[in-house]
Structures are given as structure tokens and as C-alpha cells.
Amino acid sequence: MTHLAEPLTAPAPWWELERSALARLASGWSSRLSPAELEPLRSLGDRLDATELAQVLLPVALLVEAYATGTQARQNALDTLLASVDARGPAHAPFVIGIAGGVAVGKSTVARVLRELLARGPGNPHVELITTDGFLLPNAELTRRDLMSRKGFPESYNARALRQFLAAVKGGAEAVSAPVYSHLAYDVLAGERVMIRKPDVLIVEGINVLQPPRTGPNKRSQLAVSDFFDFSIYVDARLEHVRQWYVERFLTLRRTAFANPASFFHRYASLSDTEAVATAQRIFREINEVNLVENIRPTRSRANLVLRKGGDHAVERVLIRH
Question: To which H or E segment does residue 95 belong?
């Protein structure tokens, strides 16, 4: 048994693999992705190259495939048992993966690369990726509830709609729609939807997807989003590293996306370097750090797999729940 350098919030048995040991899991396997295919998958400021692919992300994909194979075998056995009492036949239940972690830690890169790797795996399964940003409450509603300064906190999401979406996908619905979020507008786009059509694998990426179930007004525990997951990953790093990555990303966005007059954050484009650093540090300290410490990091121990990053954004260790 081992624990992370910053202790997990609950005792749990873990297998710990150093990077070199993890890399050996994929020895002799095809990388599945070319260097040219990697670059569009990398989030701003994140690390993604052929080495990270071969030594970390491909082995993780192979681990996920092993879990998926076991889950499918159990599902097949259950379908056989129920076939005699349910003439409708089994539903097409996808393997659902949750990916969590703080802002700027690189979970979006992990999600996108994993989607591509799994789609190129045995049988070329149909893999879909959804982010929980679309399930944020619209800005108008957040303003009405005085929650704009807590955007990204658990209470800022339409958790019921997200659970209903996952229940429909998990139940084998032909097509399920999800709301669309614009980072440029910093808001949910009214009337716009994305369709998810019977995937074999669904990846759900978001900072708070591993939140435990809450107790409703009747004192009964509600379903949690994570109750729909067959496997979950938490992307982890020390607080000081995440803070630095957030500031670096803010400085890059100031020169790029924020320069667009249509950007919600256009007012930051004219800041000097000193002002931009101070602003990014303040935003992180007052909002993102609070959310990370109070809500996101405490869910780390609920994951099946933890990817622990070093200061250079490279994964150093992997912890796998027994």
C-alpha cells in the first residue's frame, strides 16, 4: 500500500508504478498515433510528445482496455442470465470513463488522447468524449443565484441534467443530446446541442465528476455522476505546479483568445505582464485553488487510477486501485 506525497483523503489500497515500470506495459505495442496526430490533441501549455505517449498514455489505454474487457464479460454473463425473462434483449451499455482533476492540470489532453487511442484499439470501438462544461448553469442563472464567482464549483452545475444524460446513454438510447459550452463566450450556448449516438466507450471529462453522492431533501442519498462510471482517472499535481501552469496559460490566452473582442475575458488583453501575472494569481487563489482544495482534490481517492505529474507536466507516477 502506498499514498501520494500529498495524502489521499481516505485510506485505499494502491499499486504504485514508477514511469519506467508503466512504460514496460506497452513494450512492443504500436503507438497507434503519429507525431502529427498528437499535436492537435494537446491542451495549451501541456506536455504531449511521442515519449509521453509511449511511456504513459498508451500504457494507460491498455489498462483501460483490460478493465473494459472484464466489464464486458460480466455484462455478457448477466445478459445470458436475463435473456429468458426479458424478451427485449440486452441494451447497448457503453463502457463509461470519468476523468477528473483541477483546472490547468492537463486532464483535457489525457481525455482527448485516450479517446483516440481507444478508438484505434481492438475492434475499433466507437468512442465519444463529452465535457461537463456544457452542464454548467447558464451565466444568467449563475448570476441570479449569486454563483458567478463560484463557477466550476459543484453547485454551479446542473447535476440532475448530467445524471439524466448519462442514464440515457448508459441505458442504450439511440441518440442523446448534451448542451454545448463556449469558452470564448464563457457561457452555455442557448439552443445548441451535441448528439451522442450509442458509443461503445464514453469519456466524461470535468473537474468535479468524482463528487460523492449528496443527500436530498428526503435524507436519501442521490445518485452521483460517478455512479455511472466503469473506470475513473484523476490527473494530479502539486498545488504550486498547478498554480504556475494556470498563470502561464493565462498569459498565453491574454495574447491569443483574450485578444478577440468577442471574448468574455477581452478586458484582460490590455494588461501588462506584471498586471496579468497578479490578476491570474488572484483569480487562482480566490476561485480555482479554493475549488481544488475543498471540492476536487478530496475526490482523488475515489478514482481507479491516479496520474501524478511533476513540475514539467510529465507524468512521474501512476497509482492503480487494487
Answer: strand 95-101
- In eight-state DSSP terms, residue 63 is H
Asked whether 117 and 33 are in contact (CB, 8 A), the reply is yes
Instruction: Give the model's pLDDT for residue 221.
Output: 67
> What is the average per-residue pLDDT within 97-118?
96
Rounded to two decimals, the pTM is: 0.91
Q: Would you kindly state where each structural domain of the chain is located, as residue ranges? A: 14-321
Assess contact for 91 and 76: CB atoms under 8 A: no
Cβ-count burial 45-81 (b if 16+ within 10 Å, e if not): bbbbeeebbbbbbbbbbbbbbebbeeeeeeeeeeeee
Residues 6+ apart with CB under 8 A from 280: 246, 247, 250, 251
Indicate the CATH number of 14-321 among 3.90.1150.10, 3.40.640.10, 3.40.50.300, 3.30.70.1070.
Answer: 3.40.50.300
Q: How many residues does the chain have?
A: 322
8 A C-beta contact, residue 204 and residue 229: yes
CA distance 5 to 259: 39
